Amino acid sequence: EKGGFPHFMLKEIFEQVNSIYDTIRGRVNAEASEIYLGGISEIIPKMVNAHRIIIIGCGTSWHAGTVGEYIFEEFTRIPVEVEYASEFRYRNPIVDANDIVIAISQSGETADTLAAIKYAKAHGATVIGICNVVGSSIARETDAGVYTHAGPEIGVASTKAFTAQISVLVMMALQIGHRKGTLSDELYKKYIQELYNLPDKVKAILEKNDKIKEIAAIYKDSTNAIYLGRGCQFPVALEGALKLKEISYIHAEGYPAAEMKHGPIALIDENMPVFAIATNDNYYDKIVSNIKEIQSRKGHVIALVNDNDTQVKKLAEHVIEIPETLEYLSPLLNVIPLQLISYHIAVMRGCNVDMPRNLAKSVTVE
Ligand code: M6R
């Protein structure tokens, strides 16, 4: 059942070659440059005219939603708010019939997310689900939805569901942005083409598994770790930190890199590994200076860089090379080495990676 892998988590990390493809296949027509999401086709006009979108979820699904905020705002220019479902449901949020709420959940059974959906619906909002489990409570409760076709996810640590959720958010944002005219025809087409290049790029990252394992061996006894990213890589940093926390029990935090100087940099010393996402984008030069600041305080930098990187390769103690892609698709690739690092560290520490202590696959209680 684990398909020859020692754990479900590793199997599911490797399945991302197919799960991203399965999520876009049949929905993105590269030849015609068309995107069709059957489950929300009737709601698209409402989404195009929306004044605001609220995304809710918990844990990894909230991280995917936060990546979605960057993508939606860039492509559609619609303001997006992302909120933990548990906070949303209890704080008397302002939501009405003009609102589009997108609820993200792998299991479709998360109690807080379900309650938040009921609240939003009761206040007249249109609620769209992004779920992995077909026929789940959230899938049934939402007005419309798009399934992530990731296949069953057994490992408690969510991996392939995360990349499938982002794939759905990308498709939605591309479609709405193109309809609205806030995303150029040229860029729209470029993204559509590139979506189909992702499986090979995922494969290229997975081929680096041995190297990633070697890096994991160096830092397996750490007691803390920091993950840094900017722009849409910031939520990827959060997700990297969550993966490490939940399966290896190492304390880890994700930050937007520029926040370091407002406090967290005080934590940096010779015992601190810092995972820095430094793939090419608008923030590249900024990240380079953040890396220098960490190194001058003796922190150990493990950087994710693109193949054609020039500066960070010379600076960082370790680099993991990632094939280049378009900016808003890069979270789909960058999260993979972070998943693998956590996996290997947890295994080396003797942890039960598929069933970490104190955690359940779906959190059906609040
Ligand atoms: O099934 P859901 O996506 O609603 O679950 C949400 C969280 O409970 C889940 O992502 C959790 O944080 C995972 N353990 C993360 O790996």
TrEMBL record:
Keyword Transferase: yes
Active-site residues (renumbered): 361 (for fru-6p isomerization activity)
GO molecular function, one term: carbohydrate derivative binding
Catalytic activity: D-fructose 6-phosphate + L-glutamine = D-glucosamine 6-phosphate + L-glutamate
Primary location recorded for the protein, binned into one broad class: cytoplasm
UniProt keyword annotations, A-Z: Aminotransferase, Cytoplasm, Glutamine amidotransferase, Repeat, Transferase
Any GO BP annotation: UDP-N-acetylglucosamine metabolic process
Keyword Acyltransferase: no
Domain SIS positions: 43-182, 215-356
Record's function text: Catalyzes the first step in hexosamine metabolism, converting fructose-6P into glucosamine-6P using glutamine as a nitrogen source.
Subunit structure: Homodimer.
Protein name: Glutamine--fructose-6-phosphate aminotransferase [isomerizing]
Natural source organism: Butyricimonas faecalis
Whole sequence portion shown: 247 to 612 of 612
